[in-house]
Amino acid sequence: MNYDSMMPRDPFADDPNDPASFLEPEEPAVPLTPEEREATLHDLAIVRECQEILLPRGILGVCFLCEDCDVMHYYDWEIMAANMQASLTGELAPVHEPGADPAIDAYVPWDYALGYLDGREGR
Ligand SMILES: [Zn+2]
Predict the structure, then answer these.
(1) pLDDT tens digits, residue range 79-92?
(2) Which of 32, 46, 91, 102 fits as disulfide partner to 37, beta carbons 3.0 to 4.6 Å?
(3) Where is this region: Disordered (predicted)?
């Protein structure tokens, strides 16, 4: 008797889109509203797309004028993603972590990144 055959087969064993491979927040201590959560997931997907498409073109991340500091802040895609994942899991995001001496030419405004992706999808 082959007991292995009695085990339920992993329904996603051969599926490259295994849902378990997608990010799932562990336990939202400070739950976002459904709208915030959706918006954050949406932005996170955009950041991942930017990492795939813009990073190879030498664009390291996003810059924006911080209203608190009144100076430009520069965030690598990975830091953006980490911040968004932190919000999704209810952790406190490290808000201000300006890199030391960032290569400011390698950062673009968020809107620029969105426009780039949009134009690309529009073909
Ligand atoms: Zn700031």
Answers:
(1) 999 989 988 988 87
(2) 32
(3) 1-28
